[in-house]
């Protein structure tokens, strides 16, 4: 096959869609007003903002007044978790339940809260990358202020039983937040049916622009302010709104929701073809549940082939992949997500994440299936870790 570029790192970020770009264009030189201005130019921007809020609310199954714009998923996670913690603390509740494989935007916020006097229970994840509602129920205490469990994991793509967890939290009267950054626009998400009280999303994970996101906060729940200043977003998030970004996000989400079923079916088939093909490589294994998994996510370990080397060697073939999350690739620590599954260090370290989006084609899958076995072989042939497997110093587990 002729060399091509295959971008298969869509969990890190996606390319913008044409429709998102078209929605943004007028916001720079035509609809450039400040939505807080009372004159007509400002009011035009305000109207656009309202229309975007409606589109996003429609996709999530909530009221437009329950949507707050943020600078992205990280800010939304920070604001939701801090708000629920503060609300709980006012009633003497200082306990939070979460999981060991959350995104760092959640885990690092929880670390900060621990230093501020909160107690955090991080649930262990099963080997298949899923937790159960019963485990959440068992962890809830009378002083639990918040349960925060991600909708779908960004590394291994596993989908959590969010609706069941939501019901457990509702029965216990505990606020339930979900980091749905990898789920929204990829699988069906409905905050009412899922019994979710707070949710985070980010535009650049579903073909919208970077640097913009939103949170959902159920009516009646107090949201506290991270960014002080003007009265934008009902005083909960100050700063002149990123109108172009918000317009791009709303268009991208609307498009993703319209095409959800078809995209899911197509990507699931491509994903499973990739997994089946790559499992033919000796001493390889799939990480995370094969079924309860995002349509575009493949995460595999190849014994004796270090993730960093796999990425560089794949890149030389024009294939853009990741090992673990983009945030951990700078450090040489194996991913906390893979470690949370109980994988041995050397298996977690030898992992590769392939994340497909609707921009990928069957030819991309063909190309990866043709090139990746050679990539793994090449990395192994240069690896002292692989030598240890060959000599029997380390026993094979895959
Ligand atoms: C990407 C991501 C985030 C962070 O979103 P940003 O918009 O990049 O801040 C948070 N949580 C998960 C699960 C993600 O995948």
Question: Explain this structure to me?
Answer:
- It contains 14 helices and twelve strands.
- It is an alpha/beta fold and 398 residues long.
- The strands form three sheets. Strands 2-8-7-6-5-3-4 form a seven-stranded mixed sheet, sandwiched between helices. Strands 9-10-12 form a three-stranded antiparallel sheet.
- The two termini are 30 Å apart.
- Bound molecules: pyridoxal-5'-phosphate.
Q: End-to-end distance, in Å?
A: 30 Å
Radius of gyration: 22 Å
Second rung of CATH, namely the architecture of the largest domain:
3-Layer(aba) Sandwich
Number of helices: 14
Topology:
Layout: E1 6-7, H1 18-24, H2 26-29, H3 40-60, E2 67-70, H4 73-90, E3 95-99, H5 104-115, E4 119-123, H6 133-139, E5 144-148, H7 162-172, E6 175-179, E7 198-202, E8 213-217, H8 243-258, H9 260-278, E9 284-286, E10 297-302, H10 307-316, E11 319-320, H11 336-340, H12 345-349, E12 351-355, H13 362-381, H14 384-390
Parallel strand pairs: 1-11, 3-4, 3-5, 5-6, 6-7
Antiparallel strand pairs: 2-8, 7-8, 9-10, 10-12
Helix pairs in contact: 1-8, 3-8, 4-5, 6-7, 9-13, 10-13
The chain binds pyridoxal-5'-phosphate.
Residues 72-74, 77, 103, 105, 150, 154, 179, 181-182, 202, 205, 213 line the site of pyridoxal-5'-phosphate (PLP).
């Amino acid at each position: 096959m002729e060399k091509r570029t295959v971008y298969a790192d869509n969990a890190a970020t996606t390319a913008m869609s044409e429709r998102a770009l078209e929605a943004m264009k007028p916001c720079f030189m035509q609809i450039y007003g400040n939505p807080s201005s009372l004159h007509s130019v400002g009011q035009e921007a305000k109207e656009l903002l309202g229309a975007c809020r409606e589109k996003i609310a429609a996709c999530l199954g909530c009221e437009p007044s329950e949507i707050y714009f943020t600078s992205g998923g990280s800010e939304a996670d920070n604001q939701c978790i801090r708000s629920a913690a503060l609300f709980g603390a006012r009633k003497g509740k200082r306990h939070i339940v979460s999981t060991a494989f959350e995104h760092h935007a959640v885990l690092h916020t929880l670390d900060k809260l621990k230093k501020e006097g909160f107690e955090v229970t991080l649930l262990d994840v099963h080997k298949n990358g899923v937790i159960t509602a019963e485990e959440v129920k068992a962890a809830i205490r009378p002083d639990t202020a918040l349960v925060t469990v991600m909708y779908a994991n960004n590394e291994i793509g596993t989908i959590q039983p969010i609706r069941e967890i939501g019901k457990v939290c509702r029965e216990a009267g505990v606020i339930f937040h979900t980091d749905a950054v990898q789920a929204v626009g990829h699988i069906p998400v409905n905050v009412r049916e899922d019994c979710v009280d707070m949710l985070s999303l980010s535009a650049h994970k579903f073909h919208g622009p970077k640097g913009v996101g939103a949170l959902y906060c159920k009516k009646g729940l107090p949201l506290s302010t991270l960014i002080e200043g003007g009265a934008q977003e009902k005083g909960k998030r100050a700063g002149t709104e990123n109108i172009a970004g918000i317009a791009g996000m709303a268009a991208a989400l609307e498009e993703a929701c319209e095409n959800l079923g078809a995209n899911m079916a197509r990507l699931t088939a491509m994903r499973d073809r990739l997994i089946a093909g790559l499992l033919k490589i000796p001493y390889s294994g799939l990480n995370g549940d094969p079924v309860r998994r995002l349509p575009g996510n493949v995460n595999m370990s190849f014994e004796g082939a270090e993730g960093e080397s796999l990425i560089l060697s794949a890149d030389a073939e024009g294939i853009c992949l990741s090992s673990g999350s983009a945030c951990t690739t700078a450090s040489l620590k194996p991913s906390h997500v893979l470690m949370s599954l109980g994988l041995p260090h050397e298996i977690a370290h030898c992992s590769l994440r392939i994340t497909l989006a609707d921009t990928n084609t069957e030819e991309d899958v063909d190309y990866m299936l043709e090139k990746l076995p050679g990539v793994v072989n090449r990395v192994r042939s240069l690896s002292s870790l692989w030598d240890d497997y060959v000599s029997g110093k380390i026993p094979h587990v895959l």
